[in-house]
Known about the structure:
By secondary structure, this protein is of the alpha/beta class. Helix content is 43%, strand content 11%.
Amino acid sequence: MTIDFHVHFFPDAIAPRAMASMTEKLGGRAFPVGDGTAAGLLAAMDAAGVDIGVLCPVATRPGQFDTLLRVSLAIRDGALGPALARRIVPLAGIHPADPSAEARLRAIADAGLKGVKLHPYYQGFTLDDPSLHRFFCAVRDCGLAVQCHCGADLGFVDEPEARCSPKRIWNLLKAVPGLRFCAAHAGGWSEDKEGFFDRLAFDTDCRADTAVLEQDVPKPAARRAVRAWPAEKLLFGTDFPWAPYAPVMDMVRELRAPGELEGVFGANAAAFLGIDVPEAAD
């Protein structure tokens, strides 16, 4: 069973516009490898032999919560088709600045979703801001996991400082013990300017996903991050449609021992989210 812990798609009606806007923001520093639709994602998963994708919706403003929650529940419950219900595990999108965040988090948990997706750049917050401790405590107390963009973002190259570096993740996890947290993009390797990567990897229970952009796959620091993270805490992820499957999968197979691959490619993600997965998916 192969699980991609980090995928995105948009409703068909807005996918072209959303992908065009994000591509423009990237300014030629990265390009999509898919069209941003659910059908495009499933086709890429089929071609790569990926069974399950964990959908990571981002609420760029608090008012998007209800819509994103409805879509996540519609995917899970089959209202958007049996293929998505079988093969997509949706997280919930929530904005940390939502004045009703604690009630929203309880609603997510009561609905049976397993976690939330956060993106400090698109949501305009810094991960270790003390004013967010109450929010993250509520996430933890609701039994939800966090999948969070970490490291640099190519759409925000003019930001004066990293919003979600390994040091900031470390600070958050020390302030909110017991928070189930996955640091996307190989633990924020691209912003480890103060040597916190190893402390985060080995001295906390933080997970990391392997979502390394195609142009970063050959970089020594990115490869070290994927090689060094403890195998039981490493989750295969791509950030599709922003990275193709083949180079990321090949990198993981090259850098990790054969006995670690079953966990990295699926079992670790299933355990982290607390989900049961079928023997096979169509």
